[in-house]
């Protein structure tokens, strides 16, 4: 089953980025984990908001469900939210437990347009999100 797994800014640095918060799994290992659960998972990462919006438009045009970790865009990007609204099904995932962190991370402008949100389970959250999309 074709699924897009879209990762926002700084997530390409997993493994070395604040391991006490995000764990020691590298981005390459995250990609491998997703493809283990769904061999057709197309896993991407960008630090560029316009590119991410383009990928969400692609999901809309091809009716492809999405696992989305929007990184810091989660907390303020209405442009991303509007694009996510167009996609057929979006599950929002965060590696860390955002509600237990700084105040600005307690708000997600994406959650209201997501089918569901998984936070704080690390890479396990991606597995759960992919399985949920497979079962729809
Ligand atoms: C994150 C949480 C965000 O607040 C942060 O900006 C990230 C990663 C997570 O996966 O826990 O880049 O989305």
Question: How would you explain this protein's 3D organization?
Answer:
With 136 residues, this protein is an alpha/beta fold. It has a single domain (3-135), classed as 3-Layer(aba) Sandwich (Rossmann fold), CATH 3.40.50. It is 38% helix and 17% strand. It is built from 5 helices and 5 strands, in the order E-H-H-E-H-E-H-E-E-H. The chain has helices at residues 19-22, 27-37, 49-62, 78-86, 123-135; strands at residues 3-7, 41-45, 66-69, 90-94, 116-119. It has a 5-stranded parallel sheet, sandwiched between helices. Strand 3, helix 4 and strand 4 (90-94) form a beta-alpha-beta unit. The radius of gyration is 13 Å and the shape is globular. The model has no long low-confidence stretch (mean pLDDT 97). 1,3,4-trihydroxy-5-OXO-cyclohexanecarboxylic acid (DQA) binds next to loops.
Mean model confidence by pLDDT: 97
Number of helix segments? 5
Bound molecules: 1,3,4-trihydroxy-5-OXO-cyclohexanecarboxylic acid
Query: Sheet bearing the most strands, described?
Result: 5 strands, parallel
Radius of gyration: 13 Å
- CATH homologous superfamily title: Dehydroquinase, class II
CATH topology tier name = Rossmann fold
Say how many strands there are: 5
Instruction: Write down the CATH class.
Output: Alpha Beta
* General form: globular
Total count of domains: 1
Low-confidence regions: none
CATH architecture: 3-Layer(aba) Sandwich
Structural class: alpha/beta
Helix content: 25-40%
Taking strands numbered 1, 2, ... along the chain, how are they ordered across the largest sheet? 2-1-3-4-5
CA distance, first residue to last residue: 11 Å
The proportion of strand residues reads 15-25%
């Amino acid at each position: 089953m074709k699924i897009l797994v879209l990762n926002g800014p700084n997530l390409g640095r997993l493994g070395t980025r604040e391991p006490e918060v995000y764990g020691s799994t590298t981005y390459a290992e995250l990609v491998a984990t997703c493809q283990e659960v769904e061999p057709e998972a197309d896993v991407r990462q960008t630090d560029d908001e316009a590119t991410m919006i383009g990928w969400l438009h692609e999901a809309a045009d091809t009716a492809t469900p999405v696992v989305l970790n929007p990184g810091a865009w989660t907390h303020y990007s209405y442009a991303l939210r509007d694009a996510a609204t167009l996609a057929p099904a979006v599950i929002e995932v965060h590696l860390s437990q955002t509600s237990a962190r700084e105040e600005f991370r307690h708000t997600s402008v994406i959650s209201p347009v997501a089918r569901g949100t998984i936070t704080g389970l690390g890479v396990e959250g991606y597995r759960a999100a992919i399985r949920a999309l497979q079962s729809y």
